[in-house]
Design a protein that fits this description.
The complex is a heterodimer. Chain A is of the alpha/beta class. Chain A is built from 11 helices and 8 strands. Chain B has 12 helices and 14 strands. Chain B has 2 domains: 189 residues, Rossmann fold, CATH 3.40.50; 131 residues, Rossmann fold (3-Layer(aba) Sandwich).
């Protein structure tokens, strides 16, 4: 399953859109946090986990998904949300804690929910996997061909929920895909120091499901692997596990001084920035520079619009904190 | 209540499985999952007969993977199904609390009401039969403390059916606790008062409403689950001595029906709370605080509480029955309070 021209242009545009979205978060996040960093200050308080470098994982998978397919994302969700089609204005407004945000400011950036595209998040490692299995079971029981995808990091593969859910999804033959974004670090702990085997894709064998390792943070390779797995799930062939070798170009959270990284690591990763690499590949494959520039411009316009909206739209009334505790 | 159907006396176990079956009949989105709920019909007979009636798609034995299947229930609920899942013993919540309190309880809030979480988590509670400290706890307050979930516990079969029906219909996560000493399974003794007439037709017992199960004027005794029966026994024992007890069955722990409690204590001026969960930071303290913070209530005696002390539940019966609440302890508290009133 190879991406066609349109798929590749879409993937490039969404990667660029996600990158621009996060580049726009950065200065807003640091407002009120300089010269002394205080996480509580500024228009965007709290932890901020950026996904820069991980965009290929989101676009290569979500290129195969429909609005009615389910996706659960972890604490680093922006690229996945954007690739799944979460409303950009409402997402930006949520990050700014505004009334027009996805949950009216009750969730924040780790808890993005958009019912229009069946998207949800959990900030707890590996805990989006169970809900994805459940959504997949609902699809199966209703005879729909919807699938559910849980995105997790490589650190989540050492959680009990990971192993319990892979087993459950396999024993019930659920239309599920589990996607591991291996960015090499669980906060500061390197994968080699936390994980007994080099490839988590190998762990799929323990649950009798296909396990696919995707190298080099390559959107086209992710597209191919995810396409096969999702087609298999839609056809009743059961769950799959994919581990994608990706890169975290920023810290675990904004303000992370990253003393745990070997010297020069980030600079080396930035040379392999997937946006640069993919643009070059598309150009060498015959895409027009002007066409890519147009995609970039339209992505910037979308981000401009979303952030202008998020800035202007009002804050909620404090007392609205009491709404929606119960349905 | 004007029931025209003939009276049927059911156990809580039968009442629960009947309620689930009726809801499964009415609504194809209702399904049951948990350990040993299919062929075995539930270790505590909560799902007896459901597999035969509804088949293995809707009555699913799970692996021993509470984190996965309770997490899956949250995803099912997000997709519009109404899962009823069993956590065999409430003591097991330690392996799976995240999907309960971080996923189920927050789904509606984090989505600003876009995505609801209509699920029932039914779980057995309570000791008194020598099962040791990891199979005997109640933990009502541990769940009731956490916002976004409703917590119910029936004291009898009538309420069990009505609360289960209401729980399945509720668009929110409901923790349905059932007490092993009341359940009516063959291999555990059962308090006879828990076996009651149960209408065959569907009905709901409203969640969030306590019930005055015995009217009186001198002392309000609040209980839940098994301790309601301790309170009723005590009320009978002291009635001969001219002391009139009002017994309140909480039925729902969260949200707590503070108004029914306050109305009763406004009348009696005396309050005793009986709970078989741990004493500190629990139901007893919450009920007493709810009364004390209402300035319209004047207490005639300091409120009293009877609960399991702040120790792990011991195994050997001589110790376990020493620390558990009992009707004798309720009687002693009533006598002590009435004497204090006459000083």
């Amino acid at each position: 399953m190879t991406p066609d021209r349109e798929d590749r242009l879409w993937m490039y545009r969404i990667m660029y859109l996600s990158r621009q979205f996060e580049e726009r978060i950065k200065p807003a996040y640091f407002e009120g946090k300089q010269p002394m960093f205080n996480m509580a200050k500024g228009p965007i308080p709290g932890e901020m986990h950026l996904s820069e470098g991980q965009e290929p994982c989101a676009v290569g998978v979500c290129a195969h998904l429909r609005a009615d397919d389910w996706v659960t994302a972890p604490h680093r969700p922006h690229h996945i949300a954007i690739a799944k089609g979460v409303d950009l204005r409402a997402m930006a407004a949520e990050i700014f804690g505004k009334k027009a945000g996805l949950s009216g400011g009750r969730g924040g950036h780790m808890h993005l929910f958009d019912v229009r595209v069946n998207f949800s998040c959990s900030g707890i490692i590996a805990q989006g996997m169970g809900p994805a299995a459940g959504a997949a079971l609902a699809a199966k029981l209703r005879g729909s061909d919807q699938v559910a995808v849980a995105f997790i990091g490589e650190g989540a593969a050492n959680q009990g929920a990971f192993h319990e859910t892979l087993n459950l999804a396999a024993v019930w033959n659920l239309p599920c895909l589990f996607v591991i974004e291996d960015n090499s670090y669980g906060i500061s702990v390197a994968k080699r120091d936390s994980t007994a085997i080099p490839s988590n894709a190998a762990r799929a064998a323990a649950y009798g499901m296909p396990g696919i390792a995707v190298a080099d943070n390559d959107p086209d390779a992710v597209y191919r692997a995810a396409g096969e797995a999702i087609a298999r799930a839609r056809a009743g062939g059961g769950p799959s596990l994919i581990e994608i070798e990706t890169t975290r170009l920023e810290g675990h959270f904004m303000g992370d001084v990253e003393g745990y990284r070997p010297e020069g690591e980030v600079a080396a990763l930035k040379v392999r920035d997937p946006l640069i690499v993919y643009r070059e590949r598309l150009l060498s494959d015959g895409f027009d520079a002007a066409e890519l520039d147009d995609s970039e411009r339209s992505a910037v316009a979308d981000v401009d619009d979303a952030f202008a909206f998020a800035r202007e739209t009002p804050l909620p009334d404090a007392v609205e904190a009491f709404d929606h505790v119960f349905a | 209540m004007t029931e025209t159907t003939s009276k049927r006396r059911l156990t809580i176990a039968r009442a629960m499985s009947e309620a689930i079956a009726q809801e499964m009949e009415r609504d194809p989105d209702v399904l049951v999952m948990g350990e040993d709920v299919a062929k075995l019909g539930g270790v505590f007979s909560t799902t007896t007969g459901l597999l035969d009636r509804f088949g293995p798609d809707r009555v699913r034995d799970t692996p021993i993977s509470e984190t996965a299947f309770i997490g899956a229930a949250v995803g099912l609920a997000a997709a519009g199904m109404r899962p009823v899942v069993e956590l065999m013993f409430v003591d097991f919540f330690g392996v799976c609390m995240d999907p309960i309190y971080n996923l189920a309880a927050k789904q509606n809030y984090f989505s600003g009401g876009q995505i609801q979480c209509p699920m029932v988590l039914m779980t057995s509670v309570g000791g008194g039969y020598g099962d040791g400290g990891q199979h005997s706890q109640c933990l009502y307050a541990s769940f009731a403390h956490l916002p976004g979930m409703k917590v119910v516990i029936p004291s009898n079969a009538h309420d069990a059916k009505g609360l289960m029906t209401a729980a399945i219909a509720d668009p929110n996560p409901v923790i349905f606790m059932f007490h092993k000493s009341l359940q009516g399974v063959g291999w555990l003794g059962t308090v006879l008062g828990a076996i009651t007439d149960v209408p065959e037709a569907r009905y709901e017992v409203p969640i969030g409403k306590a019930s005055v199960v015995h009217e009186g004027t001198d002392v309000t005794v609040v209980g839940l689950g098994l301790t309601v029966h301790h309170a009723l026994d005590a009320a009978k024992q002291v009635a001969g001595r001219g002391v009139s007890i009002e017994v309140i069955d909480l039925r729902t722990v969260a949200p707590l029906d503070r108004e029914t409690i306050r109305a009763s204590v406004r009348k009696t001026g005396r309050l005793i709370v009986v709970d078989d969960d741990y004493l500190s930071f629990g139901v007893t303290g919450e009920v007493i605080a709810s009364v004390c913070e209402d300035r319209s209530i004047t207490l005639r005696a300091a409120p009293a509480r009877i609960a399991h002390p702040d120790i792990p539940i011991p195994f050997t019966p001589v110790m376990e029955h020493f620390v558990l609440p009992s009707s004798a302890k309720v009687v002693a508290a009533i006598e002590d309070m009435m004497e204090a009133g006459h000083d």
